[in-house]
Amino acid sequence: MTLKKIWCFIVPALVLPLCLSAADRQVGVGQGWTGVTHPKEVIVARQELMEHIELLMEPIDTLTVQPVQDVERVRQNAEIIGAVLLSVPHLFPPSTNLFDAKASQPQTLALPPIWKQFDTFYRLAGLAAKAAEVMAEAKDEPAMRRASLALRGSCDACHTLYLRRYEPPKTKESDYTFDFDSALPAK
Length: 187
Ligand code: HEC
Fold this sequence. Notes:
This protein has helices spanning 3-10, 12-25, 34-37, 39-62, 71-87, 118-137, 141-162, 173-177, 180-183. It is mainly α.
């Protein structure tokens, strides 16, 4: 027991405020550490946000292949995407490093290297937020087109490193050699 804890124990009334604030400052202790109390909900929240920014990207991706339809909508979407991207790295506490390579439907697709290279992950989120800001402020069509490619590139840059790639179900050798007749009821 440290000297401070002994004091907290003997004269609680005297030093209680001091003891409490010390406990509250401890990482993961006290209320509000949702990464500790609700890691699965944190994962769901970040996946929801990702899905929604994907939807907001639709008119932004489109403008690389056809003339800009609704400039105001593109700007507003880019602003929201930027705001979401600013919050992204804060939704990845270490307690959510729960990727399971063996699960057919893992609860998270966020790969463990995120927590080995968190500075890089953090920087990529910041760069993506910046790209969204540039998109929101682009003045003319060529600038908007360039900005949209850069913004999509910033999503891909992070996903390439830290998001489990989609793998279509694999056909195994045993699928071809499987004896179907033996599995069917006898005629
Ligand atoms: C800094 C890294 C980073 C950036 C930038 C980023 N993402 Fe993601 N994204 C992730 C990670 C990690 C996951 C996996 C989250 C999980 O499963 O816990 C993910 C998941 C997703 C998913 C799948 C969501 C689901 O339901 O599983 C979509 C869609 C997506 N991102 C879209 C985007 C779009 C669009 C952008 C750019 C506007 C973007 N992301 C930028 C890291 C990033």
